[in-house]
Amino acid sequence: MFEKLYSPLQKIDHPILSNFYVKRDDLIDPYISGNKWRKLKYLLERAKKEEKTHLVTFGGAYSNHLVATASAAARAGLKATAFVRGEPVQNQMLLLCRLYGMHLIFTDRESYRNKVDLFNLHFSADPEAFFIDEGGASAEGVQGCAEIVGELPGDTELLFCAAGTGTTAAGLMQGIIERELRTELHVVPVLKGGDFIKTEMEQFVPVDKQLVLHTAYHFGGYGKTNPALLQFLKRFATTQGILTDPVYTAKLFYAIEDLAAKKAINPQAKIVALHTGGLLGLFGMTARLMDTLYPG
């Protein structure tokens, strides 16, 4: 199921950026979307090698990772369970998880902090259970994301990605190092205090001067937005025909445009932005989007 993918490199006609491309990982699959596909690829290979038939993972109530894992498990004929952070709720994302056959265990935030303990408490006696960390964070996830770089032009000057855990960014850095490229990796953390992303990356790959963090584009923190970001999301979709989500990719593209306008990056450089998908996350902000963009 992970052998073929559709992820074209799309040239963007942009008023500021003259050599701007988007790596359309959002087109790989509607449910195993973008970097989720990349992160799960080798995790599922390891599960198969270890003869595990029950995927156990973690996420919030609007987690794209949970939907991706549920879909991947169903397609592979595997069981799936997710520990969902917070009180029991019903929403569109969790409905998809359930339709794919995933069992949900709602967990208070204090208990959720120690995922290994949670896994052991519920599944230590299940020899078929296979632990997958939140977001697919793992060496296997890094390996899968490293392959992205091999699908990009070797003369890419600036490669941009959004970051939550740093797994995708670590994979991109690994791919740059393996191919001995001069490409600069520009990472846009979507959480406050995003400098921690560098530390997370260093768990998997050496980080050198080719890494640039842009920590001023979190818009208040993870899952936070403001009207300017939502208006940008709308304009980008209207003018480019590319949907983004407010949690990750809208912040990414906003940052690129803002940095170019401020001449913090060269607007003539060959720039590739990785669209990591996750568009189902729009469901989690339907009311906010409607109230801001289409009031009344």
Please describe what this structure looks like.
By secondary structure, the chain is α/β, with parallel strands linked by helices. The chain contains eleven helices and ten strands. The strands form two sheets. It has a six-stranded mixed beta sheet with strand order 1-2-10-7-8-9. Helix 2 links the parallel strand 3 and strand 4. Helix 1 crosses helix 6, helix 2 runs parallel beside helix 3 and helix 6 crosses helix 7. The radius of gyration is 19 Å and the shape is globular. The model has no long low-confidence stretch (mean pLDDT 95).
Supply the key terms.
296 residues, six-stranded mixed beta sheet, single chain, 38% helix, 11 helices
In terms of topology, how is this protein built?
Layout: E1 9-12, E2 20-24, H1 35-49, E3 54-59, H2 64-76, E4 79-85, H3 92-99, E5 103-107, H4 109-112, H5 115-123, E6 129-131, H6 139-146, E7 158-163, H7 167-178, E8 184-189, H8 196-202, E9 211-213, H9 227-240, H10 249-261, E10 271-275, H11 286-293
Parallel strand pairs: 2-10, 3-4, 3-6, 4-5, 7-8, 7-10, 8-9
Antiparallel strand pairs: 1-2
Helix pairs in contact: 1-6, 2-3, 6-7, 7-8
